[in-house]
Amino acid sequence: MHAAYPFNGEDFAYFLHQVSGAMFYLGVANPEAGINGVPHSPDFAADEHAIGIGVGAMAGFLSHRLDALA
Fold this sequence. Notes:
- The protein has helices spanning 12-15, 49-69.
- By secondary structure, it is mostly helical.
- The longest helix is centred in the C-terminal third of the chain and has 21 residues, at 49-69.
- The termini are far apart.
């Protein structure tokens, strides 16, 4: 309970003790559609339009990092 919302129920940090990694938060709420998007809540739902945005952002991030290594 020492983490900032919405990560107070996330245990991903324990995995990072074994392997390097990162966690990105992708907002998937859509109040107009009644989608709250809060992880670990009983009525969690994700606006599927956010998936394409997340894929594009992650692909751009990885491309940038690979270019930096070259």
